[in-house]
Amino acid sequence: MLKLYDMETARKTILRRTPANTTKYPPALLEGVERLFGSGVTPPQAVSRILASVQEEGDAALRRWSEILDKTQLDDFRVPVDELVVASDSLPKSLARALGTAADRIRAFHERQPLPDWETAAMGGTLGQRITSIERVGVYVPGGSAPLPSSLLMSVIPAQVAGVKEIIVCTPPNPHPAILAAAHICNVDRIYQIGGAQAIAAMAFGTESVPKVDKIVGAGNLFVTLAKQQVYGTVGLDGLAGPTETMVVADETANPAWVAADLLAQAEHDVLASAILLTPDRRLAEAVQAEVSRQVENLSRAEVIAQSLANRSGVVITPDLETAAVLANEYAAEHLCLAVAEPQALAAKINNAGGFFIGEYSFEVLGDYVAGPSHVMPTGGTARFASPLNVLDFVKISSIIALDRETSRALSAVAAEFARAETLTAHAAAADLRS
Q: For the whole model, what pTM was predicted?
């Protein structure tokens, strides 16, 4: 079920990154889109149609799309506050404790992130920066085959730590009680039962019921990602999430049962998830193969796992750990797990990863739920330049320029030289007046 690859084959297959704009959509998906939107309509075109209708018609379009796409008729999109309380009270005590523990650790982690205002008088007058929070943020929380209250915690809490005054949450209709309970734990009471591209449209443009936001965060399905891509510029975004991915680098000291369990945990997310093991030890690779085959028999999402393992996952045999580090750096995984004898030393050789999971006791599932950092991480190789969701995503940095008269006059002559070189005579004149 979990294939072994040599490096050359792996680089052409499971390690190969393809540009987002070359996505090939599964035939079943295209058939479904054409059934709802008409012959020849692509997913991006369908999303454009949804966005335009919500922008023009507001709540009426939201109701229509909820009925067509979610088979739900809604008069009021907002979840009443008392339902959040009821959901929280109805949770099993063990789950309530787990949500509370996760919320506390996520908040404690993000409260340690520095957000410094600073000023200096060393350059003539005052120069510096001022940090202010974004005023209104929209959080999208998926609600498909697996409810994700953890995603609400991981997105809402960093925004609160940053000082965001208004946070609204959109999640598909009939949200799971755990999602509502997570919102209640975070003291967020503006929850809207709107899913998919129409939710992104509502938050980006605003409707009679849903306020327009300044930035949208949170992952979703293909249509959510396409919608975020198309509204960028109207609102800010945290990023464009692709299928989730884990890369494990392991040596002969790793526990094959644990490595297999970590790969399976990743593969069960969806059929496009990637779970990749790099190892120079063939005996470990074969032991992990055997463990995967054994453990998957007892898992509820075995069919999803099977497709993920067959299409997007595998074990790559490398000559040594140094080569594995090179491959890991090239791949720039969302989650990079180091199950080796000296994980810190190996981590020092790798720059690109959304999250480094150092050693076998720091396994990726803990990062999904309760370790502390947000689990909203860059996918698709974007960890080469992007970061996990954090407090800085919810603030703006403004430059402070308050020069004294002497410095202003001295710099005006310099500015005028630049302006004349760029043939911007009005710029030059404004500078010359002060010099």
A: 0.92
